[in-house]
TrEMBL record:
SUPFAM superfamilies to which the protein is assigned, alphabetical: FAD-binding/transporter-associated domain-like (SSF56176)
PANTHER family per record: BINDING OXIDOREDUCTASE, PUTATIVE (AFU_ORTHOLOGUE AFUA_1G17690)-RELATED (PTHR42973), FAD-BINDING PCMH-TYPE DOMAIN-CONTAINING PROTEIN (PTHR42973:SF39)
Membership in a protein family: Belongs to the oxygen-dependent FAD-linked oxidoreductase family.
Reported cofactor(s): FAD
Organism: Rhodococcus gannanensis
Top-level taxonomic group: Bacteria
Keyword Zinc-finger: no
Signal sequence region: none
InterPro entries, alphabetized: FAD-bd_PCMH, FAD-bd_PCMH-like_sf, FAD-bd_PCMH_sub1, FAD-bd_PCMH_sub2, FAD-linked_Oxidoreductase, Oxid_FAD_bind_N
Keywords: FAD, Flavoprotein, Oxidoreductase
Protein name: FAD-binding oxidoreductase
FAD-binding PCMH-type domain mapped to chain residues: 42-210
Amino acid sequence: MSITTQPPSPSTDQLRASVAGPVLAPGDADFDAELTGFNVASTPDATIVVGATCADDVAAAIRYARTHALRVGVRATGHGAVIEGPGTLIVTTARMNDVVVDPVARTARVGAGARWRDVAAATAPHGLTGLVGSSSGVGVVGYTLGGGLSPLGREFGFAADRVHSIELATADGSVRAVDPTSDPDLFWALLGGRDGFGVVTAIEIGLVELATLYGGGIFFSGDSASDVLHAWRSWAPMLPEEAGTSVAITRLPPDPNLPPPLQGQTVVHLRFTHTGDPDRAESLLAPIRNAGPVLLDTIGVMPVAALDAVHMDPPGPLPAADRGTTLSALPAEAVDALLSVAGPAVDSPLAIVEIRLLGGALRHPQGPANAVTGRDAGFAVTGIGVCAGPLGDRVDSHLRAVTAAVAQWTCGALLSFCGLPAAERTALWPADSRARLLEVRHRYDPAGTFSPTGADDLD
């Protein structure tokens, strides 16, 4: 019988002397805790972990990794995948969570480890907001580099469109400021290409002036899923750009922290946001309110800092897997196909199967061009499953069934919602963009230090 063991770590004495944060190896008391993040489906493995406190720590870690032929991965909140495994140095950035707001310029400089809740705490007193997603617990940098799809996106675009500059530690162990003027190709590639170019240590983002909005959710009985989804597919595309919406078949646990009407129920959750006049918003919402029996209605005027209340994503760590696609259209046949594989009558391990309306300002960059995928799509479909419990081992097959059901209307995917391993993401970009991403990666990381697969996965 053979036993596979972690190869011995190279001496870390010099690295420990070069960085202010902790340097940890397997067997150290805090090693596992340093790597644990929101998605606990798996805990990454590594040869060395560096808990960076600043850009200089990151640069020193990269130089050490290059000297010892280690690949480099980065982990902030642990919502997404990370380069990991034996022969890998992982930089954790949670300690780099500073946020500095310039209310006059309407910008914020955001550290690599900051979450959207950190940004909201700093911007809300000024009546400003960033283009936060459905959960304020997500890290700002990873979310933004992947595109950053906000409930406010139809009016303001992707979060990547609002980036002014990027501080980046590159494969040569230096730290550089990247913007559309100094490094236009690298700036383009980082925003939407995300992986394999270096470690982002901070970004400067533009903010929008918005203190409140009209939004929330309506929970319909799961028995009305067909009626609600068909009504939504006709209603949603008629909304103006200042309105955003999604609808999800949601299987809720018997959690006493949930409102009593929702505990242990399969429901249809309609989400809605509107940044304009509440009376106008209410009139837009009226046609969908009676699409089915209502269990709970939370829609009203809310501060933008409370945007989490729209989607009501789980706040705590979960062992989750996801997979998604984008659609050019959502005909009745597509809704029926989704219901056949993920509707309330299906014994499914998927906690959420969501359809989200795209379009509006998401269709075109709102600033300098970038590599964000999915701009031509009208809708996004995403499935999320919890890899635990009696059906946990069936999550992957059910996720694949969701994307297969709507395959004939598929037109790509959003990078952060595709759920694909790095080697399968190449089709997200057209051939010319893929070639440009590969050239930029080779230019700034010729040895593949940051390559997600250890190879040229864009080839």
